[in-house]
Amino acid sequence: MPTFRHVPAAAGLSLVVALALTGCGRGEEARGARLPDPQGSWAVESLTTGGRTLHAPESAHLDIGPNEVKGNYGCNGFTAVAAFAGTSSVTVTPGASTTMACADMEFETAFAKLFRGKLTIDRGPDRLTLKTADGSTIAMTSAPAATDAPLTTTEWTVESLVSGGTAASLPAEAAGKARFTIAPDLTVSGSLGCNRFSAKATVEGSTVTFGPLTSTRMACEGAAGEVERTLTALFAGGPLTAKVDGRTLTLTAPDGKGLTAKAASAAE
């Protein structure tokens, strides 16, 4: 027969309180300051939807502010309005987005479909998961806030041509060929996609003006030729508004035409 040890009532009560306090302390530690604020910079790792997991391109990310979100689906950039209910949920209203044809459109389309409406927030140390009503998820890890690449000294690779609110990616046969660098002395050099060129730039605040272009004279046909003619007209057309956001440069003319370019990484 088991033997029961008699514990005085006062001692038993003290033991219960001690255990409760210990458990509370551990709970507070688990739910404490180490859990990240949903607001901040997040690198998207994957999406889970329809019983499948889609792994994110390297550039997919969210920069979540108090009321606004800026991000990248992996290729196309976007903005959205965010309305938080504490740290437990957020309601996302999509805003503007570029419309380039990208390599991984399956991921881009799925991301855009999931990142809208009311999303439940699940936090863990250095992790954030957003969950839709049907159980689909966007899994992210914390990322340091991106620093803007310098306008000068950076090699910029043209990724898309802009017309008004629409950005169209370069044709496959022209992709990656149009590059330029603005040196510290504001000398510009690079390739228009076929011919190499040089020029002198003037920078005043957020405005960049390219002087007359000097270029080689190879005959350029097809898509590369079309891109070259468009870039030549843009650079020669007068002042351009320059905006650098992380590793992306946008140059826009007063008529809404322009380009987006990506900064080369250290490996490149």
TrEMBL record:
Domain DUF306 stretches: 39-138, 149-259
Protein name (Swiss-Prot/TrEMBL): META domain-containing protein
Organism (species): Streptomyces venezuelae
